[in-house]
Structure formats: structure tokens, C-alpha cells
Amino acid sequence: MTEDELINSYPHKHLLGIEGLLPTSINFLLKSSNNYVDYLNNKKNGKLDILKNKICINLFFENSTRTRTSFELAGKKLGADMLNISVGTSSIKKGETLIDTAMTLNAMQPDILVVRHHDAGAVKLLSEKVNCGVINAGDGPHEHPTQALLDALTILKRKKKISGLKIAICGDIMHSRVARSNIHLLNTLGAEVRVIAPATLIPKGIESLGVNIFYDMKSGLKDVDIIIMLRLQLERMSGSFVPSIREYFRFYGLDREKLNFANPDALILHPGPMNRGVEIDSELADDIDRSAIFEQVQMGVAVRMACLKAIIDHKLKAND
Amino acid sequence: MIKKDNPFNSDKKISKKYLLKNGSIIDVIKNRIIKEDLYIKNKVVEKIGKNLSKIVDEDTEIIDCKNLFISPGLIDMRVNISEPGHEHKETIKSASMSAASGGITSLICMPNTIPPIDQPAIIHSIQRKAREVALSKVFCTGCITRNFKGEEICELHLMKQSGAVGFTDGIKSIENTRVMRRALNYAKSFDGLIIQHAEEHNLSANGVVNESETATRMGLKGIPSYAEPMIVERDLWLVKETKCRYHVNHISTKETVEIIRKAKKLGLPVTCDTSPPYFTLNELSLEDYRTFSKLNPPLRGEEDRLSIIEGICDGTIDAISSDHTPQDQDAKRLPFNQAEFGGVGLETLLSLSLNLVKNKYISVEKLLKLLTVNPAKILNLDYGIINEKSEADISVFDLSKPWKINPESFFGKSKNTPFDGMLVEGKNIMTFVRGRLVYRL
Known about the structure:
Shape of chain A: globular
Structural class of chain B: alpha/beta
Helix content of chain B: 25-40%
CATH topology of the largest domain in chain B: TIM Barrel
CATH class of the largest domain in chain B: Alpha Beta
Largest sheet of chain B: 6 strands, mixed
Number of strands of chain B: 20
Strand content of chain B: 15-25%
Strand order of the largest sheet of chain B: 3-2-7-18-19-20
Distance between the termini of chain B: 13 Å
CATH superfamily of the largest domain in chain B: Metal-dependent hydrolases
Structural class of chain A: alpha/beta
Largest interface: A-B, 16 and 17 residues
Oligomer: heterodimer
Distance between the termini of chain A: 15 Å
Radius of gyration of chain B: 21 Å
Strand order of the largest sheet of chain A: 7-6-5-8-9
Largest sheet of chain A: 5 strands, parallel
Order of helices and strands of chain A: HHEHEHEHEHEHEEHEHHEHH
Number of domains of chain B: 2
């Protein structure tokens, strides 16, 4: 592959994770996403026909509102035929194995499968059994590549760069695929990444992924440019990983006081859905000067359009 | 002036100055004894030096401490106060009186009160009460798990902010390894201290004494001695991984001493304490089914007792605590199987420890480390030493004063000592807390 091709295309059949992607591939996807942001911002623009007559299946084994809707909207904007299959209506509940489901769907000859599954590695397993391109929309606590891309795009839009930024990811690192994908992506693009959480929520060996670990917000947020707050599931807050909601909010919830430890122009991101009063102060979440939480949703559609297009382009090239 | 019939002084308004003359000041940091005067003024040790009589203020009370030792006040790491919840056994006031008479200036209470110390508000209320009593400093440990169930961890960080010096489930081990790992991991995040009572409860269930020939002869159900070290050994795996500070309360067996000695050599952040029964008595004290000798952990064999002494002397054991566990008469005046565990210890802690000096196992200055600066360091307290400008928490004791342990003369509400009638040497004469003479024999 020529250098030019490396910079101007996405060289993989699937998008299963950020780990292992070259900086050129990530930058290509971000550049392409950025073009779609401009396109989406102009309401006069109608549907595109890049994915016309292409079949794209959203296969969600786990509940999701924003990611699934975002992919659906992205596909429709590109002119694709979008199908949604969620676990409640699928044959998985009737006892079908993951691979059988994959084979069945494969027989329908889709062009792209967008898959979310509650088990790490399940999306990769599925991708090995089908002929079409697969986009990972989240597999257990492993990866969520499009979320990392949309976070990066949001940062780029506000800060004009990623390299050299100090970025803190706070909260339930242990169970978070968003954290893992973000760590890979932001490190690849040259940011300094740290994680902040009680030790019960920090998985072993995370420092080898290229992050510094902090157990308190004061030292962790010092000089930070970007704060990515993670959602903490309520069932993990009653004495198992964390003693209580009030203790968690007291020491790890983001409020104005703790935000003051960071740089004065530090930006807050959150992959949603938020637990107001648990990991983030409600008023802070709504402050558009400090928080880009709703902007992220908008970026999400553009990023998913770019990813769908990249996978289709790769498929067309392979068929040539 | 303290009246003769009441040796205690809890009047916070009296701010007097004292000059302790001719005493032997124990320097627990440099392991030495200094024969100098000590001047107490404005709550602190104002000056240490020779012939201070000339420089002290006129209204200073001069106390001759000839042949007496002046030590930092004792810090007792393990006290069951019983208030709130069991005020008929002991109250903060009666425990403070016991402590003051025994030379103890700081006591650390266990969380097994009713309600248990599992949230910041209870710590505040106990400390408020202790300030009213004003005879000793009282610090709290908090529960590790809710209701001591060993399942869900409590608000450890909030409790630490409110003054909890460590976390323990009191008389229960955390049995579930996953929960113990989480507790250590969580406490590590804010440099908390996890304190374990080491006992494999499945093994010790229904046991009342050490499993041995004695138990068999007496027909009592035994607790194997390894029920203790196996929990410590398991925990050390977790300590190795989490690097959390870990302390074992009242260790009693030879094997536990050996395991901790090894762990310290490996540099693990582990500390431990023992209590006077475990280096003073062995299971033979159970004869006649004396329920006052029913303790938890149980009194062990003679070999264990000697190993505990060895551990004290070589520094494996960091601290000596009283393990004060008051029980009312009705809780002990029962068949051995049904009687409650535990013995009182505040008023005998110093004297029984000084026995080790008398028997030439250890020097007085080295021994006092285990009762003062060592527990202070483990608990991150700024006490336990005598320095100029340090808060004047002081015990003045007579190393050779002989006396007979007589529970009827105890100031505490409960009299259940396993040392009833024992002849000992060494007694606390005066106790100062924050420069106030709170007790004088």
C-alpha cells in the first residue's frame, strides 16, 4: 500500500477496535468525520446516496439508545437500507448460538453489520464468520471504537489538536470499553492520558496501556485540558466496588470545586447516559462553556457516517 | 487541686503548669533514658532540661519524680468501649477513668457498638462524648463492612475524613476473600489502614478454647491455633498485590509471629499487635473452668506464649494493646460454653507489659515503644513521643511498685480480668492529657 493510500483510506475490512490502528487510519476517519459534520450542519443538505442499495444491519445484543439511533441515522443519511435487530426480538432468546445467528444473517447478504454484545471478543468472533464488514458498537468492557473517535473529534473541534493535551479519564475504568478505546486512541495521537478512580475500579496492569494512575481528583486533575467522565452503574455503588453514591460523589464526582483543579479552560466530556449527582454535578453538565456532552452526540452521527463509508469503500476496493 | 478521694480531674478550665523534677524521661525515638526535668505549660511540653526550677513561672506546681519514669502517654489500639449500646458493661466515662488510671492517654475504640460505627455521624457523637468526659483522647475505628456481614463495604473514605484511624470488623474476620481484596484495594486509594481480627470462622465455629490436650481433658470444643495464621497468610497475598497498609490485632500464635516476621522481611506494609494475656498466660489458666480466662483469640500453649515474647523483643510485634472487652457479671457467670469471650485490660496493660522488663526480656525504653510511638505511627497519630512543643500526653510510673491485681479496685464498670489476684510490679502514678493532670494515684 502506498503512503498516499495509507493517508487517504481506511485499510481494514472491519472496525473492531482502536488498538492496533495506525495514526494515519485514525486521522483519516477523523478527517472524513469532520467533513460530515459540515454536511450535517447545513440543514438544506438532503440524503446522500453513498450507501444506496446497501444493507446495513444493527445487531444489538445489549440495550442501547444513543449508539443504535446514531448508527441508524448515520446509515439513513448515507442512503443505506437500515435494519435493526435487538436481543428482545431475536432468536438468541430461543437458544440460538452467536455463530448460528451470524450465519443466518450472513445468508441475507448484508453489506455491513454493526454489532454490540455484552461479551468481550464476541464481535470479533462474529466478524470471522460473516462475509460483510463489521463495526464494533461495543463489546463488553473491551472496545467501543466509534465512541473514542467521536470523543476525539469533539476534542479536535474545541482544542484544534490532540497531541500534547493532558487528558484525564475518571470513573469506572474497570468496566469501561469507552476508557479502553479512548486510551488507545488518545495515546496513538500523542496525548498524555491519566485515569482517576478508586483502586477498586482500576483494572490491573492498566498502566502498561500507557496511562498514569491517580486515586484522587486533586492531583489527577492538575493541569488537565480534557476530563472524560465515565458512567458508574448504580449496581456497582452499594458496597461492592464503591460504598455508596454519596461517598463516590464526594470524592470522585465532578463539581465546580474539583473542576478548579484542572486547567481554567478544561473541557468536560461524558459518553452518556449521565448519572447526575453521581459522577457529575447537574449544573456543570449543562454548562456549555465547560461541557461538550451534547456536542458529542452530534459528532457521533458524523463519525458513524465516516465509519460506514470507510467500510463500504474498502469492500468496493476489494471487489475491484 | 485534686481531692484525695477523687483521683480524677476532668475540669477542662484548670490550666496549670507543672514541673516534673528528677524523673527519668523515656525517649522512645532514640531508645534512651534522659535524667532531666520536664516543664509542662499551655498543654505542651514547654521545655526539657537540667535544673528547670529557676526558669519556670511562679505558679508552677513542682512534682518530685525521683525514681519514677516519665513516659509518653500510652496509646491503646484495641478497646471495646461498649458505648453506645452496652452502657451497663462500660461507658466512655468509665473506660476513660480506667484508661487514665492505667497511664493510657489515647484509646482506639472498636466499631462493634450499637449502632456500629459505620458512618461519620457516629464517630462525631462518640468524640463529642469523649470531649465532655475529658479524661483521655478517644479515636474510632470504623466497620469495614455493613453490619459486620462481610459483604458490602462501608463508607470508609468519609469515615476517615471524620477521624476514623483504621477499619476493622472488630471481632469478625472478613471471610470472603473477594470482599477483603476490595476493602484493601479501596482503602489503598486514600492510604487507609485495614485492621484484621484473624480467625477462620468456619474452623472456629462453636469453639471456646484452644484446641489441645487441655481442651480435650476439659471436654471443651477447641479452636485450632492455625485458624489465626491461615487468615493472615491469605491476607498477605492480597496485601502483596494491593500494597494497602494492613494490621493484625491481638495475635496469639507462634505461626502468626513467624508469618508476619517473614512478610516484614519482604517489605510488605504489615504490622501487628498482641495483648498481655498472650504473653502472660497460657491455656492452663483455664483450670476450674474460669470464664474470665475465656478470651478471643483463646489462650494458647506455652510455646505460643514464648513465641509472642520473642516477637515483641525482635520487633515483629509492633504494639501491645489491652484488647479491653468488658463483660458484666451475668455474661461471665455461666457454664464455660455459654459465657461471653473477653477480659478487661485498660488498668493492667502497663503493669503486665512491664513484667517483660522485670523478667529481663526487654529494656523499659524499648518496651514503651510498643505502647506509645509504634501504635501512633501505625494509626498516623501525632502522639506517643515526648518532645519540646509536643502535646503533653504523659504517664508517670513507678517501675518497682508492687501491687496485687484486685478487680474490686478497678474504676471500670466491668471487673472481668483474667489476672485476678496476680502479683505484679510497676504502676502508673500520674497521667497527663494535653498538659492537664487527669489522674493522680
